[in-house]
Amino acid sequence: MTQTISIQTVNPDDKKALPITEKLSENLYIRFGSDGKNSFQDWQNYNSKFVFVIAQIDNEIVGCGAIRPISETMGEVKRMYSKYPRKRIGQTILSFLETRAKEIGYEELILETRIQNQEATQFYQKSNYKIIPNYGKYVNNTKAICFGKNLI
After folding, report:
1. What phi and psi values does residue 59 have, to the nearest 5 degrees?
2. pLDDT, average across residues 142-152
3. I need a surface site. Which of 9, 24, 100, 113 has the fewest CB within 10 A?
4. Is residue 100 within 8 Å of 58, Cβ to Cβ?
5. Rounded alpha-carbon distances, angstroms, from residue 132 to 16, 27, 110, 113
6. For residues 20 and 81, is the Cβ–Cβ distance under 8 A?
7. Helix (H, G, I), strand (E, B) or coil at 70
8. Over the chain, what is the mean pLDDT?
9. Rounded CA gap, 148 and 17, in Å?
10. Domains of the chain: residue spans and CATH
């Protein structure tokens, strides 16, 4: 039986989003010793180039993801999380974010993940993201790996 995954754009502070973002932070902390929240603090400046989504199956929130602006034509993928592996939740979220990114004028998406996070690195490579030089605060971070994808 195929389950339908629905995607909804919400504010990251929405009470529906908080349990899944907390689950993501908990998962990251257990696996890598850091919850990733520090790179999610400047999102209070909500604007039209910012997108945060939750994924839902039936009445259960099963994933989340976001894009934040780096420039007028470049967005950064953040807070990607799927509660259940290999259910196409992450791919559904990422596809939605890529489509939305094009609609709001992004020509390129970039992102960072931990080198240790083999699931994520394989996921992004299967989604046609290419390894790029570390950018921004990740430039000298030897635990980080960065990816980019041209959308045009």
Report:
1. -105, 15
2. 96
3. 9
4. no
5. 34, 26, 8, 12
6. yes
7. coil
8. 88
9. 26
10. 5-108 (3.40.630.30)
How confident is the model at residue 98, as a pLDDT? 98
CA distance linking residue 30 with residue 20, whole number of Å:
15
Distance between CA atoms of 33 and 30, rounded to whole angstroms? 6
Specify the pLDDT at position 55: 96
Q: Are 18 and 10 in contact (CB under 8 A)?
A: no
- The 3-state DSSP class for residue 121 equals helix
Residues 6 or more apart in contact with residue 139 via CB below 8 angstroms:
133
Q: What is the dihedral of CA 42, 48, 52, 57, to 10 degrees?
A: 170
pLDDT, tens only, 105-134 = 999 999 999 999 999 999 999 999 999 999
Q: What's the whole-model pTM score?
A: 0.89
Residue partners of 48: CB distance under 8 A and separation at least 6: 104
Dist. CA 116–CA 58, nearest whole Å: 32
Q: What is the pLDDT of residue 140?
A: 95
81 within 8 A of 92, measured Cβ to Cβ: no
